[in-house]
Design a protein that fits this description.
This protein has seven helices and eight strands; from the N terminus they run E-E-H-H-H-E-H-E-E-E-H-E-H-E-H. By secondary structure, the protein is an alpha/beta fold. The chain has two domains: 3-45 and 99-226, 3-Layer(aba) Sandwich (Ribosomal Protein L4, Chain: A); 48-97, no CATH class. The strands form two sheets. Strands 2-1-3-8-4-7 form a six-stranded mixed sheet. The chain is elongated.
């Protein structure tokens, strides 16, 4: 059985946690990971670059100079691309419907593969759910130094609470960060190369970019259940 080291906020190893079987037993599919990351990056593009062709440029229709007699090449319009302010040739245009579809099962399998690689490499660490009342950056800096991840790209993952609200007779569920989660995020945000995220907002790109992952025990349980088949 694969186990993960569990630390308290001081950086002391206080035990181990059994790695979720859904992540350990996952067959790592490198091609699927690559396709998933490429799709994520492609879908993040705005596709909003736009240039004007010569037919769209507003300018005078007068010839720049006479056709003959000046020893210059013939020119018909100031909107030609060789003139300053003229139209662009084959310039970028807004593109539509370039979204790359990612199937839900493919996404879950890709994220399980990424996490499985992190577990095999010993780059996933479990943090005992910290009880933080006020932001304390120094505590987390000392913690990172103690477990040997300071100076590397680290992502901290925490769980989120969900609350139910009734608006105009309709029941809605919202993700609401707790007070401790807010203090957790504020403690991490000023640390160089460290990033905080709720486990429900994480993507495979965030995981693969991180050198080390520090996750709370509750968040690990939530993540493994959300990525289950």
């Amino acid at each position: 059985m694969t186990t993960l080291k569990k630390y308290n906020l001081i950086g002391e190893e206080i035990g181990t946690v059994a790695a979720p079987s859904s992540l350990v037993s996952c067959v790592i599919n490198s091609q699927l990971i690559k396709d998933y990351i490429v799709a994520l990056r492609a879908n993040a593009r705005q596709w909003s670059a736009n240039t004007k062709g010569r037919s769209e440029v507003s300018s005078s229709t007068q010839k720049p100079h006479k056709q003959k007699g000046l020893g210059r090449s013939r020119q018909g319009s100031l909107v030609a691309p060789q003139y300053k302010g003229g139209g662009r040739v084959f310039g970028p245009k807004p593109k539509f419907d370039y979204h790359v579809k990612i199937n839900r099962k493919e996404k879950r399998l890709a994220m399980r593969s990424i996490l499985s690689e992190k577990i095999e490499a010993g780059k996933l660490h479990v943090l005992e759910c910290p009880q933080i009342e006020t932001p304390k950056t120094k505590v987390f800096v000392d913690f990172m130094k103690k477990i040997g991840v300071h100076g590397r790209r680290v992502i901290f993952l925490s769980e989120a609470s969900f609350e139910h609200f009734e608006i105009e007779g309709e029941s809605l569920t919202f993700q609401v960060p707790s007070y401790e989660t807010d203090a957790f995020a504020l403690s991490v945000r000023n640390i160089d190369r460290a990033h905080f995220s709720l486990v429900t907002n994480i993507s495979g790109y965030d995981l693969i970019c991180a050198h080390e992952i520090v996750i709370t025990e509750k968040a690990l349980s939530h993540l493994s259940s959300s990525l289950a088949e």
